[in-house]
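User: Reviewer 2 asked us to show a designed sequence for the structure in our supplementary figure. I'm pasting the structure tokens here. Could you produce the per-position amino acids so we can include them in the response letter?
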């Protein structure tokens, strides 16, 4: 496996400066935002798709520093019930796939999206309980009429271009657990896989190691994010894991995102890396930063240090006693 970073962390720096900084830390890969919520500070798909020289220069900027692009990321909600909002996220996804094909990047990361509860809805509706029965009816309608048809069509669009779709399992979206990912994958094809982020597993009560085994057995992990979570033992009993308070209200929240090693110790992260290796994942571990207690530079540096201690970057080969 290789250690990389989600380059949007350094969106305030010019592309070349950000790449230099990442390379100086010994990393081997970058995940680059191409639209949606991550933005496109370092990569303008319209420009690169229409200008072969700009495309060549962009690719050279990355490769000349000994880096590869692990994924293009355009996280958004292409199933949003407001058509103009959905179209913006959809267009970002389409352009990202087309650009990934030209750059020979194997994965585009995004969210599954979340529809409304009927055709004329204005806002997404994320059912989280089986009763009252209205929620079951909403969930059935969403999957049969929106989630599966969309990703069946546009998953094929990506597959035809030799690009895999890495859906981040994230609360608030239709695909948010290993089970929902596998449900969509069964319907829409193996082009659909996870951009697996342990931080979103922990707050849902899911053990990331077990999630890796569940998805890894199906070869359904396309990309991996490295971010931690800490759960406050007092606040969680007050607010529950579906805490709706703003992320900035850190003192009172039930849980919060942390840099790698500041929610769980290195043994836990070593177990995660070992599980990835066991199921055959041999791609990039991409550092993401959403830690409200650390600056980007501090959180990034701490994550690099902790992951370098536990990450096996190259296959071990044959065991001496075999």
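Assistant: Here is a per-position design you can include in the supplement:
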């Amino acid at each position: 496996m290789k250690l990389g970073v989600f380059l949007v962390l350094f969106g305030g720096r010019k592309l070349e400066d950000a790449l230099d900084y990442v390379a100086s830390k010994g990393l081997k890969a970058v995940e680059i935002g191409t639209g949606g919520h991550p933005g496109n500070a370092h990569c303008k798909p319209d420009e690169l798709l229409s200008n072969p020289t700009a495309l060549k220069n962009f690719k050279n900027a990355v490769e000349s520093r000994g880096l590869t692009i692990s994924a293009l990321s355009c996280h958004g909600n292409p199933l949003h019930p407001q058509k103009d909002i959905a179209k913006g996220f959809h267009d970002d996804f389409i352009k990202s796939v087309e650009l990934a094909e030209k750059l020979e990047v194997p994965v585009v990361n995004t969210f599954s999206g979340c529809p409304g509860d009927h055709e004329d809805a204005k806002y997404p509706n994320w059912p989280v309980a089986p009763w009252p029965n209205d929620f079951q009816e909403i969930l059935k309608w969403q999957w049969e009429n929106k989630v599966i048809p969309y990703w069946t069509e546009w998953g094929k669009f990506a597959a035809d271009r030799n690009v895999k779709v890495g859906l981040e399992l994230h609360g608030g979206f239709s695909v948010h657990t290993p089970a929902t990912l596998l449900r969509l994958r069964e319907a829409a094809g193996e082009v659909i896989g996870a951009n697996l982020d342990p931080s979103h597993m922990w707050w849902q009560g899911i053990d990331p190691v077990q999630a890796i085994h569940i998805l890894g057995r199906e070869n359904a992990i396309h990309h991996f994010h490295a971010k931690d979570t800490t759960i406050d033992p007092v606040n969680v009993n007050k607010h529950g894991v579906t805490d709706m308070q703003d992320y900035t209200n850190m003192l009172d929240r039930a849980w919060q995102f942390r840099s790698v090693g500041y929610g769980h110790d290195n043994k836990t992260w070593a177990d995660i890396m070992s599980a990835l290796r066991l199921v055959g994942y041999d791609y990039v571990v991409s550092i993401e930063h959403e830690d409200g207690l650390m600056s980007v530079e501090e959180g990034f540096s701490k994550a690099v240090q902790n992951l370098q201690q536990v990450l096996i970057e190259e296959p071990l080969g044959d065991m001496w006693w075999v």
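For the response letter, you might also mention the following. The chain has a mean pLDDT of 96. The beta strands are 2-6, 29-33, 68-73, 107-110, 164-168, 192-196, 221-226, 228-231, 255-258, 284-287.
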